[in-house]
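Supplementary Data S3. Sequence and structure tokens for construct A.
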Amino acid sequence: MIFAQKPPMGWNAWNYFGYADINEQVVRETADAMVEKGFRDAGYNIVQVDDAWLLQKRDENGDLQPNPERFPSGMKALGDYIHERGMKFGLWFEPEMVSENSDLYRAHPDWAIGVPGLKPCPGRFAKWGVDVLKYDFGYIAPGCNIENLFRRMGQALRESGRDIMLAACYGSTTITPWIRSTGASMWRLSGDITDSWDSIVKVAKNALSVGGYSGPCGWNDPDMMVVGLDGKGFVGGIGGGCTLNEYSAHFAIWCMLSAPLLMGHDVRNTTPEIAEILLNKELIAINQDDLGIQAFTLPPMSNDDFILAKPLYGGDIAFCLINDWDVPKRMILSWEYCGWEVTDRVRIRDVINHKELGEFECGTDIIVPAHSAVVWKATRI
């Protein structure tokens, strides 16, 4: 088993391809595109296949098998292809329900993972070269202990003989007090995000409510990003799409949250504008900061301002001023609630636009466009 010292970065197939359109050709082309377009070298090094890879029937040995029409070369060959390009192979898995009175259970009780005395066997994932296992519980049968189920998989991964990162997917903040102790490196906090500004803000505020549980080796996961979906694909078709300003703010907020940065768009068709957002080295550096502290919300100075502060290694502080209103808004920043004195002199850099803004005392203000965010890196002089 392996732990994520910093928020994982990569791509997940779900948001764009969903159930219907994922196959090994798409995944291979995406891996190639991540290399060609500079995403791998920027730190996006996970290529994760989500739902719809699994054939709904076990092989003659009772083992999982991929859908031969979608993945004719098999999962090991796909993992090898990804590894050859210097990236990690991620795979989704969801345990399915089975009745103890069913013919399947009576014939193969050893396949069950929720029965006392039996344990899951992730050896198949190790043989395929899986590096990240997204373990997803979309439904929990009455009486099942979700904490124990995650602990059993964590222990099984530690015994698998391969360093596999556990990404827990339950979609609730209720797991945060104990999920790190299962060995999970990241954990989903809510239901699926949609390609809309309202969803982005809602999911972000949910993550802020449990910020104290996130840090090195275990990260709050507000969900894969929708940057670049433009209303297309599986999730894009649900949300309807966002503006470039909204996508820019979305990426900035995820970086401030120390969230896993998992792209969800069709990387093969990344536009220059979306690439500029996702490849912003200064924002990625804030996300990957060695301190690993998730941003917290500052008390509003006026008009219900939505402002985040993220302490950085070395003493700097990143501030994110988010305007979730439908009109431009003047926002006021004061650093007195971050451990600095309000009268301290501070040098500020705009990390989205890569510009030095000058030196300030006693705070400053700015007009932020509707559904937008400003990110400043501040250094006390």
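Construct B, processed identically:
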Amino acid sequence: MEKLEYIAPCHFGLEAVLKREITDLGLDIVEVEDGRVTFAGDIAALCRANIFLRTAQRVLIKIGSFHAETFEELFQGTKALPWERYIPRDGKFWVAKAASVKSRLFSPSDIQSIMKKAIVERLKGVYHIDWFSENGADYPVRVFIKKDEVTVGLDTSGESLHKRGYRKLTAKAPIAENLAAALLMLTPWKRDRILIDPFCGSGTIPIEAAMMAAGIAPGKTRNFTAQSWGHVVSEKLWQQVREEARAGENTDIETQIQGYDIDDEMVSIARANAKLAGVEQLVHFQRRDVSELSHAKKYGFILTNPPYGERLSEKEALFSLYRTLGERYRALDAWSMYVITSYEQAQEAIGKKADKNRKLYNGMIKTYFYQYMGPKPTGSKR
């Protein structure tokens, strides 16, 4: 069976996590770069990557790559690519996003316009028509240019993969679902261990944890742009992969996943989101201030996305908030704590330097993932 190359963009700093996910799906890694992973697989890999990957932002079919320092080279390089393999004569196609880093060609709008013209010229020659109705399925194109090397992909996902479909209501400054899943994967947490998010907001971190615990594929209920590309991937194949996803679920399990928030409305929203995700029986949400954080058992995990200051009107309250978090953490017995924040004084306020610190981007905000490692349970290999 023919192999294709795919590109999966991700949050900067989480490439290794996504690489591991792709490898676990049995797919071959081709290249790992800043903010994306290229891998190879058959056409079923398109469906499986979209439905199963928790940390990717989207899945692109790699159409090709070439060197371009001028707009003429960009035009000719784009025109030389086999667009007719994917885009039919009635397809609606456009360059949805152009990103350029350290390259001579840097204007996104100019890049988009020239590439669109090049694709039109290519398809004119193939279909022997001068005008395209573009009233068929969508074929969004994405291009990355780095050091004058152009990489072109066709977006199979449509809406970003962080949109699982369960978060109808949200907090003011939410953490993306794929980032929450990646943070969980950066910890040793497993479904038989306690997990608490004391600033849970709309519930994303606990819900993602519950979905992972139950083996619920993040994309099992949502739609993807490539579902309308019947000449590329059959509806039967999509159904087979969704059936594979359903077969891997097990919600009849015991979990100790909890989310707290000081806002009653947020707690209600979190519960509603958990129900939409099909994990309401696996997560416990309640109104509770961080100052009330406590637990009788050992070896639990705190994983949280506290206020940064960008979303808190009273910035002076931040130091006290993080100090309280640190105090409550130290009162727990043999716990681990993982905190993602852009607050520069976080470690000082918590009262302890993190054992590990990882720089990540939450959207456009540079953040730090502070990792306070507790002891392993007696007899545990983790």
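The longest strand covers residues 92-101. The radius of gyration is 23 Å.
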